[in-house]
Amino acid sequence: MEQTTVRDIVRATGGVLLAGDPGEPLENVSIDSRAMKGRDLFVPLIGEHSDAHDYLAQAIENGAVLVLSSRKMEPLPGAAWIQVDDTLKALQAVGRDYRNRMGIPVVGVTGSVGKTTTREMTATVLGAKFRVFKTSKNFNSDIGLPVTMTEMTKEDEIAVLEMGMSDFGEMEVLSSMARPSAAIITNIGVAHIEQLGTQENILREKLKITVGLENGGTLILNGDDAFLRTVDESIGFHRMFYGFGENCQYRAEDMVITGAGTEFTSVCGAKRVRVHLPVMGKHMVMNALAAMAAASIWGVSMEEAAEALEGFAGFRNRQQIYEVKDYRVIDDTYNASPDSMKAALGVLSGMETEGKKIAVLANMLELGEDSRRFHYEVGYYAKEIAPDVLICIGELAAEIGRGVSEAGGKNTVIKCFDTKEEALPFLKEQAGRGDLILFKGSNSMKLGELIDDLRDE
């Protein structure tokens, strides 16, 4: 934080200063009592199984100069102390106030899949003209977003903020904090359908990103998505569609996947520019189109955007391709949903290799009561692009194997295992010179550990 004092926090939260100097300067916000960066505001959050108020003394000892508290207690010595009604709402108020004081334009990014890559590509393209602040790591929740926004500086000229939601009402809170100038919605899939019930509900909740959208703001939508393309002028904001369809203002044509990445022609009106992405797949083209559309609002030309995207190197655990021994690995282990699983299988199918193509697929979680059907549909979808060897890990992932088998994937060797440890010997046996191996599953399935095991062998 810059130019922020205890007094600013009192004003933003509506809290009561019980101890300390109102003019005390602050530089950072922490929600972890063990991790202080210097001159920190510590916000103790109350979770389902713990209450960080129990660690106020530890936070002060580790360097916090200001703490918030919703617990009625005597202030502890060593730091300024603000009494608030609710520490989470106070944290959000701090983030909102700081974002308002910085006053820079914000691009908000949400969607069922592709948020992080779209965020990174948008920041890359805007970086052709501006100093860009962007969400770090996956700090995109009602807790992570306000902390992230307090890291903006006066040197930043524009921000790209990822906004993730998993339940009703969350997007409204995020949007009211971020107050985006433009908002990208990448797609409406089935991620978090366990909580939200239907894709129609997911659409309604995602569209609440408009709650905080500035007057005159732009909504950038995937025009190929069956749900998003139904969003009409009644939404009340300028709409910009992107995709492969004729209905899209930013459109991709002539896509080719090469050994070095993906090429396509970006079309907007009469303008046509060839784009070379060093990452694989149609879904990456969609992410790039969203980024180009957003950047165009601030005057970044298609040529400038295309040049910037040539340097896009991807993001850790999201289709990173690298050598392990004498074969290649596609590390897509960060997370998984049906749409992203299909996209990853498409990338595997489209890449050339001297040896076998192997897919190691694990459970996709938080898909609700239709979870088995979603897994089966991934397998059935993959009948034309099924790998030479399919290794399924977990009870749900076994449905992917069943889908491939029942769809007619008779040339695919399919093996199912309950755990990654059980799968490892078979994987080691199969992996050979010139092979290409895709790893994809929900983050909690920890497929990255399998890659580490192969490296360490």
From TrEMBL:
Chemical reaction(s) catalysed: D-alanyl-D-alanine + UDP-N-acetyl-alpha-D-muramoyl-L-alanyl-gamma-D-glutamyl-meso-2,6-diaminopimelate + ATP = UDP-N-acetyl-alpha-D-muramoyl-L-alanyl-gamma-D-glutamyl-meso-2,6-diaminopimeloyl-D-alanyl-D-alanine + ADP + phosphate + H(+)
EC number(s) recorded for this UniProt protein: 6.3.2.10
UniProt GO MF annotations: ATP binding; UDP-N-acetylmuramoyl-tripeptide-D-alanyl-D-alanine ligase activity
Assigned GO CC terms: cytoplasm
Pathway named in the protein's UniProt entry: Cell wall biogenesis; peptidoglycan biosynthesis
Binding site for ATP: 111-117
Pfam family of the protein (one): Mur_ligase
Residue ranges of every copy of the Mur ligase N-terminal catalytic domain listed in the record: 27-96
Iron keyword on record: no
Keywords, ordered alphabetically: ATP-binding, Cell cycle, Cell division, Cell shape, Cell wall biogenesis/degradation, Cytoplasm, Ligase, Nucleotide-binding, Peptidoglycan synthesis
Annotated ranges, domain Mur ligase central: 109-295
Span of domain Mur ligase C-terminal: 318-442
SUPFAM superfamilies recorded: MurD-like peptide ligases, catalytic domain (SSF53623), MurD-like peptide ligases, peptide-binding domain (SSF53244), MurE/MurF N-terminal domain (SSF63418)
Coiled-coil stretches noted in the UniProt entry, renumbered to this chain: none
GO terms classed as biological process: cell division; cell wall organization; peptidoglycan biosynthetic process; regulation of cell shape
Cross-referenced HAMAP family: MurF
Cross-referenced PANTHER family: UDP-N-ACETYLMURAMOYL-TRIPEPTIDE--D-ALANYL-D-ALANINE LIGASE
Similarity comment text for this entry: Belongs to the MurCDEF family. MurF subfamily.
Known role: Involved in cell wall formation. Catalyzes the final step in the synthesis of UDP-N-acetylmuramoyl-pentapeptide, the precursor of murein.
Name of the protein this chain belongs to: UDP-N-acetylmuramoyl-tripeptide--D-alanyl-D-alanine ligase
Organism expressing this protein natively: Qiania dongpingensis
Gene name, Swiss-Prot/TrEMBL: murF
